[in-house]
Amino acid sequence: MQIKSIYRGARISAFKAREVTRAIQGLPVAAALDLLAFTPRKAAVMIAKVLKSAIANAENNNNLRVERLVVQEATVGEGPTLKRFQPKARGSAGPIRKRSSHIRVIVTDEIEIAPTRAAKRTKKPGVTTRRRPTKVIPEPQATAATQTEQPNSPE
Predict the structure, then answer these.
(1) Cα–Cα distance for residue pair 131/4, rounded to 1 Å
(2) pLDDT, tens digit, for every residue of 57-85?
(3) Predicted local confidence at residue 62, as pLDDT
(4) Please, where are the H alpha helices in 10-74?
(5) CA end-to-end span of the chain
(6) What is the DSSP string of 4-23?
(7) CB 3.0–4.6 Å: which of 6, 93, 96, 132 could bond 84 by disulfide?
(8) Which residues, 6 or more positions from 43, have their beta carbon under 8 angstroms from its beta carbon?
């Protein structure tokens, strides 16, 4: 079942928000929330709110288990643009575009959660992994000028 949540009129450029939404598509919701929590962008906070709303909708309205939910789609569309002007030199004006966007997140329980890379790396019994040979660096040979006699040597 697909559950969606939409944040309309988010005060961020769609171009900036799309960069974050691409990272969470196809991830389990727990992994997506972790990723968003540690992403240092303004858009990550907004997308996390929308994702939490979609999770709450799935849990309360449709009685779905949170552990089985996967982010099926996370898209950002352009919203209305506020047009303002900034005074410039010699009586002219320059345009300022304050962009907004619509953030939409769809979660589903129909997609199987793929095992992580760590789970795929389990070793099979009796199979050894090949390692690169380590490079042996020879020690520099001492010359007669650098060799000094040890005092109190038993000779």
Answers:
(1) 48
(2) 999 999 999 999 999 999 999 999 999 99
(3) 92
(4) 14-24, 29-37, 42-61
(5) 89
(6) EEEEEEESS-HHHHHHHHHH
(7) 96
(8) 12, 16, 17, 19, 20, 21
Q: Return the pLDDT at 141.
A: 76
Cα 1 to the center of its chain, rounded Å: 25
Strands 70-78 and 2-10, by their bridges, are unpaired
Closest CA to 47 of 1, 106, 99, 88: 106
What is the C-alpha to C-alpha distance for residues 61 and 3, in angstroms, rounded to an integer? 9
Helix, strand, or coil (residue 108): strand
Q: Which residue bears the tokens 């849990």?
A: 59
- Per-residue pLDDT of 28-65, as tens digits, reads 999 999 999 999 999 999 999 999 999 999 999 999 99
Neighbouring-strand partners of residue 28: 70
Q: pLDDT digits over 91-108, tens only?
A: 999 999 999 999 999 999
What ranges do the domains of the chain cover? 2-110
Residues of 121-154 as b/e, b for ≥16 C-beta within 10 angstroms? eeeeeeeeeeeeeeeeeeeeeeeeeeeeeeeeee
Residue labelled with tokens 């030199």: 89
77 pairs with which residues across the strands? 102
Domain 2-110 has CATH 3.90.470.10: yes
